[in-house]
Amino acid sequence: MKVVPELDAIERRRDRRFECEGNAEVVVFERPFLFRGKMRNLSQTGCFIETPVKLKLQPLAEVELRLVARGQQLVSRARVMGFQRKKGVGLRFVDSDTRKEEPFSILMEQLNTAA
């Protein structure tokens, strides 16, 4: 019998993830609504937002992400890469959005130093 690992167990990310707690607001553009949650991890390319809200999101839907973590405020567009109902959503930053550059660099430096 062939054993297939669960989807959650397969690591597909290329960038190092850091545990990082912060508050998040996510504005979904396709069906305008906002939800709040807690950031649980962060990498150069994305983050995971934990939320008890039952979400119905389309893969690759574009959102605006507003984070506050370690004294840094970050605003960026992102895309929905995956979600788990009543657990949270994985987001990938939109590379072309430069609004996040300086605060994001400071935050990533803090996380690298602490690791």
Q: What is the name of the CATH architecture? A: Beta Barrel
Shape: globular
- Name the structural class: mainly beta
Mean pLDDT: 85
Look at the structure and give the CATH class. Answer: Mainly Beta
Q: Mind telling me the CATH superfamily name?
A: predicted glycosyltransferase like domains
Query: Could you list the spans in which at least 5 consecutive residues all have pLDDT below 50?
Result: 1-10
Q: Within the CATH hierarchy, at the fold level, what is the topology?
A: Thrombin, subunit H
Strand adjacency order, main sheet: 1-2-3-6-5-4
Q: Tell me the Rg in angstroms.
A: 14 Å
The helix tally amounts to 1
Helix content: 10-25%
Question: What is the topology?
Answer:
Layout: E1 18-28, E2 33-42, E3 46-50, E4 62-69, E5 72-84, E6 88-93, H1 101-114
Structure description:
- The chain has a single domain, classed as predicted glycosyltransferase like domains (Thrombin, subunit H), CATH 2.40.10.220.
- A hairpin with a 2-residue loop joins strand 4 and strand 5.
- It has a 6-stranded antiparallel beta barrel.
- With 115 residues, the protein is mainly beta.
- The protein has 1 helix and 6 strands.
